[in-house]
Recover the amino acids of this structure.
């Protein structure tokens, strides 16, 4: 007798429908010393479908294997707007630097800049995903304010097997 066909909600197909997504923003300016990596704080969780984001540590830890889109954005304002400077933002997984990076160069301007990094990653349960930033000049990562400054961290899982 041939094997019984699986129903759409059996085993792996059921796991493919597990929702996983979060978005968080920062709610306070964060100092960035010159040429020093800082872990970016995203303390205000806007949503978290699977309880995978920790706003206290600004860390995303997926519950399931899968393919995820991860994105981090900062609004950076240099203390001295009359100098050329570089801003670097990176996604780290399990403490490994430079999983994905964006490195922007800005000339003297009288306003802040936005830097973003995003990538698609294959993650395992409990991987630790964080955003770090560095600048060649001291400044601040500006508090998220709609229409003025954009500082946010988010991830979402694509429909993909969890095994």
């Amino acid at each position: 007798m041939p094997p019984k066909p699986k129903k759409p909600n059996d085993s792996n197909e059921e796991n493919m429908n597990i929702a996983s997504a979060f978005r968080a923003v920062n709610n306070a300016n964060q100092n960035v010393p010159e040429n020093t990596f800082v872990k970016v704080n995203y303390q205000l969780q806007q949503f978290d479908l699977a309880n995978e984001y920790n706003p206290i540590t600004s860390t995303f830890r997926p519950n399931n294997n899968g393919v995820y889109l991860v994105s981090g954005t900062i609004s950076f304002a240099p203390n001295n707007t009359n100098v050329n400077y570089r801003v670097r933002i990176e996604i780290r997984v399990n403490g490994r630097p430079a999983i994905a990076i964006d490195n922007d160069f800005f000339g003297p301007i009288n306003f802040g800049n936005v830097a973003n990094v995003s990538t698609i990653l294959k993650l395992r349960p409990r991987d630790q995903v964080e955003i770090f930033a560095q600048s060649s000049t001291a400044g601040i990562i500006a508090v998220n304010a709609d229409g003025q400054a954009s500082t946010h961290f988010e991830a979402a899982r694509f429909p993909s097997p969890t095994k």
The first strand starts at residue 21 and ends at 25. Residues 3-13 have pLDDT under 50 and may be disordered. The chain is about 5% helix and 50% strand. Residues 11-15 form the longest helix (5 residues).
